[in-house]
Design a protein that fits this description.
The complex is a heterodimer of chains A (221) and B (466). Chain A has 221 residues and is α/β, with parallel strands linked by helices. Chain A contains 5 helices and 10 strands, in the order ααααβββββββββαβ. Chain B has 466 residues and is mainly beta. The chains are: A alpha/beta (221), B mainly beta (466).
Chain lengths: 221, 466
């Protein structure tokens, strides 16, 4: 029984056409794919649409080497900056990297600890946020402690980043409580006009120290 | 004796006191002797010259106890310092340059030719040739006798940021924003050798090896934004050594007289390298922000040492003391270092209210000038770093300064388009030189003291003379 019709003359014709011919050409010749006219037109349209980098012209505004890497302030910018400064002074706003800080209630910061034989007394509190301790910190006798500061949340050091230099210093700090802290920057070597070395600057804490286990802050310059 | 050759007129009962001449390093000259309190500096000069027994009398400046200068008479100093007349007063004498450079007063010519802002200018060590680099990618050589253009050298593909003359005055190196360095011949204006390629970002500073270390003027040091410093062999046109170590842009490189290379960088450090093998010797730390500029006390001597324009008195101190380095930074302060020996700075120079753009030792290394973006120039003592005076007058940032070769005058170019010539002794403005239409980017005083050149954003180069 014949399963499929036998191949007709069409197939054999096609088959015949695929005979390999040995052409008299050197073996290394690469044949370029023929580009049709429409492809060329499309490319020309593309070039017109996209901006070409003009390699021949050198950019204007030549500045000496000591002014490269610096943003030259145009006069218009200086004036607008002056006006903005005056407006801010009037409003009394203090510019900080994180301007909006969420207010935290007492229940969030202090956790109630139940003590006593029947766990009914509730006069002890445990601090749930990062707190600062001075160098010579010793706990009060545990029986009389009203505020418990867990050891894991006591900090003396903070990682403070200078925003311009993008360098991080590990500073031993006199850290006061709150999101804006005062930091000891005498290691940085900054100096005032009078020649005195600056030792204190403000920095704003940028993470949740009680979650991360470290304090990261940005220096307010 | 000496007193017999100098007659002191005694008017009534003028007090007398004993003085002892000392030179700057503390060595005493002669015996203490008796002078009236109203003695003037010229008479003190006569005495000093007689004691030193020189054939030609030298001019001197006198400082009572090394602090207060004797200007009108000794009595004024004694009163100011509150010295007792019973004791012997040490009077320090300082030889001054024999020649006087006169302040430049007028613009003799405005050289046009550049089609973009002029960003660097320099006189050759002899003072015969002038070269300028500009934003139009050309380096132009100017003939100083006729004050006309001499050659235009094309070869760079971007702004020519820094130029440096070789210490023998026969070659000029120029570095551009495409990190290429070309060497030019000032006589023909043609490029010597091949373009030196190697840096990956723009060139910030170029410095040749001093003549006394190598008389051929073969090696050139270049610093770049890519954080590396390369020493090039200009004869074979290839890199000899690469010194990496800085983590950010290297802003300045200086080749010292002892074969040490000093580099300053935006990573707040200054590194000292040995030029012979490229090994880092020391890192000088202390700045709190980018270090913009360096100045060596031997800068002027290394620039002009091969030639001797009327520089008759070179301070003998320089030979014995090691060279000092001053660094100016964006943290508004400068440090005075003794880099060959110590890691700690000698002094910290504070007082500016904005970043320090350029510092420069005076040719006799006694004074230091610092130009800052706070519109003032401050003068400091070159040895101790003590603050001396402020020069105020500019209304915008001061970009560059240049000393005259007798160390008495200072010219400064500023963003407010004027140049000002200051008399350092009196701390007063000597000459105001307006004329540029836009910011002045580069100034230089020729080593023979005749001319000052300034170039700026208005694309023309101005030459100023007396």
């Amino acid at each position: 029984v014949q399963r499929s019709p036998p191949s007709g003359p069409v197939h054999s014709r096609a088959h015949d056409g695929q005979v390999e011919v040995a052409l008299p050409m050197p073996p290394q010749v690469r044949r370029r794919a023929p580009v049709c006219a429409s492809q060329v037109v499309l490319k020309m349209h593309e070039q017109r649409k996209t901006k070409q980098k003009n390699d021949d012209k050198t950019p204007e505004g030549a500045v000496p080497a000591y002014l490269l890497d610096r943003e030259g302030q145009s006069r218009a910018k200086v004036l607008s900056n002056m006006i903005k400064q005056k407006r801010k002074e009037k409003a009394g706003k203090w510019e900080v990297p994180l301007p909006k800080v969420r207010a935290q209630g007492e229940t969030e910061v202090l956790k109630v600890i139940k003590t006593g034989k029947r766990q009914k007394k509730a006069w002890k509190r445990m601090v749930t946020k990062v707190c600062v301790v001075g160098d010579g910190f010793t706990r009060k006798p545990p029986k009389y402690e009203r505020f418990i500061r867990p050891m894991g949340l006591r900090f003396k050091k903070a990682h403070v980043t200078h925003p311009e230099l993008k360098a991080t210093f590990c500073l031993l700090g006199v850290i006061t409580k709150g999101t804006v802290v005062e930091v000891n920057v005498s290691e940085l070597g900054l100096v005032t006009q009078g020649g005195k070395v600056i030792w204190g600057k403000y920095a704003q804490v940028t993470n949740n120290p009680e979650n991360d286990g470290c304090i990261n802050a940005v220096l307010l310059v | 004796m000496l007193e017999s050759t100098i007659i002191f007129a005694i008017h009534g009962d003028v007090e007398r006191m004993l003085i002892q001449f000392q030179d700057e390093s503390g060595e005493v000259l002669g015996n203490p002797f008796d002078v009236p309190l109203d003695i003037t500096p010229d008479k003190l000069q006569l005495v000093c010259n007689a004691l030193l027994q020189k054939e030609e009398p030298l001019p001197f400046a006198f400082y009572a106890r090394g602090e207060a200068e004797v200007v009108t008479s000794l009595a004024v100093c004694v009163k100011a310092l509150g010295i007792e007349t019973e004791q012997v007063l040490p009077v320090v004498y300082q030889p001054q340059a024999v020649f006087r450079v006169r302040a430049v007063a007028r613009c003799t010519s405005s050289l046009q030719g550049h089609t973009e802002a002029v960003i660097s200018t320099a006189f050759s060590p002899t003072g015969k040739y002038l070269a300028s680099g500009s934003g139009d990618t050309t380096v132009r050589f100017w003939d100083l006798t006729t004050e006309t253009p001499h050659h235009t050298s094309r070869g760079h593909t971007h702004w020519v940021l820094s130029i440096a003359w070789s210490p023998d005055g026969k070659k000029l190196a120029s570095g551009c924003k495409n990190s290429q360095i070309c060497i030019w011949d000032p006589v023909t204006g043609q490029q010597i050798g091949k373009t030196l390629i190697g840096h990956t970002k723009w060139i910030t500073w170029l410095c040749w090896e001093p003549l006394h270390l190598n008389a051929e003027c073969r090696y050139l040091a270049s610093s770049s934004k890519d954080g590396s410093v390369r020493v090039w062999d200009t004869l074979l046109c290839r890199t000899e050594k690469i010194m990496t170590g800085h983590t950010q842009t290297v802003t300045c490189v200086k080749w010292g007289g002892d074969g040490l290379l000093y580099t300053s960088s935006q990573d707040r450090t200054i590194k000292v390298w040995r030029a012979s093998d490229g090994v880092q010797c020391r890192t000088l730390q202390g700045h709190a922000h980018w270090v913009n500029t360096l100045a060596l006390s031997t800068d002027y001597v290394l620039r002009t040492g091969a030639f001797d324009p009327a520089h008759a008195t070179i301070n003998a101190q320089d030979g014995s003391n090691p060279e000092r380095l001053v660094s100016g930074s964006d943290d508004f302060t400068m440090f005075l270092w003794n880099p060959a020996e110590e890691k700690k700075p000698l002094a910290r120079l504070t007082g500016h209210c904005a970043l320090v753009n350029e510092v420069l030792f005076s040719p006799d290394t006694r004074l230091l000038a610092s130009a800052s973006f706070d519109k003032s120039i401050k003068i400091w003592d070159g040895r101790t770093g003590k603050y001396l005076q402020s020069l105020r007058g500019h209304v915008a940032a001061v970009y560059q300064v240049a000393w005259s070769s007798d160390s008495r005058l200072l010219v400064s170019g500023s963003s407010d388009s004027t140049l000002k010539v200051w008399d350092v002794k009196t701390a007063k403005l000597s000459m105001d030189l307006p004329g540029h239409a836009d910011e002045v980017f580069a100034v230089d005083w020729s080593p023979d003291g005749q001319r000052v050149v300034s170039g700026g954003k208005d694309k023309c180069l101005r030459i100023w003379r007396r």
